[in-house]
Amino acid sequence: MNAKRTTPALALAAFCAAVVSTALAAEDAGKKAEACAACHGPQGNKPVTPDTPRLAGQHYEYLVQALVGYRKGTRSDPVMGAMAKPLSDEDIRDLASYYSTQRGLAASGAPRPAQ
Questions:
Q1: Domains in the chain, ordered, with CATH?
Q2: How far apart are CA 111 and CA 35, in angstroms?
Q3: Which of 21-30, 52-61, 62-71, 85-94 has the lowest mean pLDDT?
Q4: Residue 77 and residue 70: Cα distance in Å, rounded?
Q5: Interhelix angle 89-101/3-32, nearest 10 degrees
Q6: Residue 30: its pLDDT value, please?
C-alpha cells in the first residue's frame, strides 16, 4: 500500500481511538463520582451540608491537589481521608477532570454563566 495513503488513515485511526478513549474515561469518571454524590450531590452541585464544598466547576489542579492531600494525610478530614486513601493517581485525575468540567451553580441554585 502507498505510504502517503496510509499516513492519513493511521492519523484518522489514532484520532478515533483518542475520542473513544476520552469518552470511556468520561463515562468511567462519572461512575467513579457516584460515591462522591452522597455528600457533594449530583455532579458536585448540591452538597448535603453547608460545610461540604461544591466540586462542580472547581479548577482541575486544585481538585487533584486536594485529593492527593487527603490520600497522603497532609490534608485532614476523616471522611475524605477514608474516601481518598484507595484512589489511584488515575482515579484522582479522572475525578478532577469530571468535576472541573461540570457546570457549577451559583448560590441561588441557578447555573453559573459559561466562562
A1: 28-101 (1.10.760.10)
A2: 23
A3: 21-30
A4: 7
A5: 90
A6: 80
